[in-house]
Amino acid sequence: MAKASTVGCLAVTDPDRRTRLLAGAAVSLQAFSDVLVPLGTLFADAGHELHLVGGSVRDAVLGRLAGDLDFTTDARPEQVTALLSGWADAQWDTGIEFGTVSARKGDATIEITTYRADSYDRVSRNPQVVFGDSLNGDLVRRDFTINAMAVRVGRDGPAEFVDPLDGLTALLAGVIDTPATPQESFHDDPLRMLRAVRFVSQLGFRVAPRVFDAIADMSQQIERITAERVRAELDKMILGEHPLEAVDAMVDTGLAERVLPEVPGMKLTIDEHHQHKDVYQHSLTVLKQAMDLEEGDPDLVLRWAALLHDIGKPATRRHEPGGGVSFHHHEVVGAKMVRRRMRALKYPKAIVDDVSQLVFLHLRFHGYGDGAWTDSAVRRYVTDAGPLLDRLHKLVRADCTTRNKRRARRLQENYDHLEARIADLQAAEDLERVRPDLDGNAIMQLLGLPPGPKVGEAWRYLKELRLDRGPLSHEEAEEALREWWQQQG
């Protein structure tokens, strides 16, 4: 039977904390009264129930409700469409086959779904849509108990907190558990296994022991899910506030072996520079330190590069005479592995290119030594990084995890020095837009060439010359090009 009370006044176990949370939820919902009150009135006047539900209630209780509001109702989709018509600023029905009508009112995005009582074929994750006739029947089919709480919305706005599955207790305990048995839930929709891991990252919660065991037993079921849906959950996971704990959960349950096997694969290798931890733990530390260097919103490309920067080490591990271990060219191998995995997960080409390029470049700084690079080497470092330079700075700094304070300080000082040199050269030479000192038209005119491959070769020669020697005068560039052309025969 549902537990119901006026929002903010639920008197059960641990009443003080529950009351505070629900009172806070009432305050959060009050901020949306200009949407909730008229919407509740629309449905009540038409004789229909309306409940705020799922993540919206969870986030309101946690004090993190944003402008996305999810509702459930006994009204059928065509009735919902009619009720919203003329009230909403805009509405669309892209999810109507699943009983969902979406709308926008002011700054709020609204999704209203008819009560569901679906069944699953347990081959795909797509349900056979069946509309239900009760709130409790709708809540029990949801993924986790923390998402199975509801608030009735009436003419006066939020009116009653409904929690038939005791989701508030799970929320208070910071536990992710399923309404039904986890085996039944995951057979219905295997993506829920990844969603559990994602909520570890987003909420800082832990997975209930029975849920953990079910994921470990059923991880192969994730192969029923499309790469695009897996990728979406992985991105939400990596962008959360607690991705390290989520990655650990994914690895410990065996789920990572199915969706991102290169990550648990790093547990097999001891890092030659960080004898106190394996490459996997080192990579988690780099991810954490990269997050600490972020400015503003979480950076998807930087976080993936931080986690994956050393995935090439297992494939390149070599035992050296004297007991040492080397990982020569692991950045080259790792960049190829990143491309292969991210393409399999259907990532956009731009993200694949950016993450793999950061992995490819992350080790280059270690050739800098104590400022021994020529200006030419600095120019090439900047040019190869291109628009990724700021992210590369963060990744390289995050990659310093040694416990040797003297060595750590030296690495940071060396990178400070490199950044200062880059700044000086950028001020003098506009390194962000390095171009040959002669353009294609000037090359064709000087060498008497028509458009074609030879012009491209000459352009690339001048580009390399520009990187080696810095800016040249027009006359110097022409002289160098003539000499190169004579050498071409």
From TrEMBL:
Pfam families: HD (PF01966), PolyA_pol (PF01743), PolyA_pol_RNAbd (PF12627). One of its GO terms (biological process) is tRNA processing. Its EC number is 2.7.7.72. Residues 279-395 form the HD domain. InterPro entries: Bact_CCA-adding_enz_type3_sf, HD/PDEase_dom, HD_domain, HDIG_dom, NT_sf, PolA_pol_head_dom, PolyA_RNA-bd, tRNA_adenylyltransferase. The keyword Nucleotidyltransferase applies. Residues 401-428 form a coiled coil. Keywords: Coiled coil, Magnesium, Metal-binding, Nucleotide-binding, Nucleotidyltransferase, Transferase, tRNA processing. Its cofactor is Mg(2+). CDD domains: HDc, NT_ClassII-CCAase. GO terms for molecular function: CCA tRNA nucleotidyltransferase activity; metal ion binding; nucleotide binding; tRNA binding. PANTHER family: CCA TRNA NUCLEOTIDYLTRANSFERASE 1, MITOCHONDRIAL. This is CCA tRNA nucleotidyltransferase. It comes from Gordonia mangrovi.
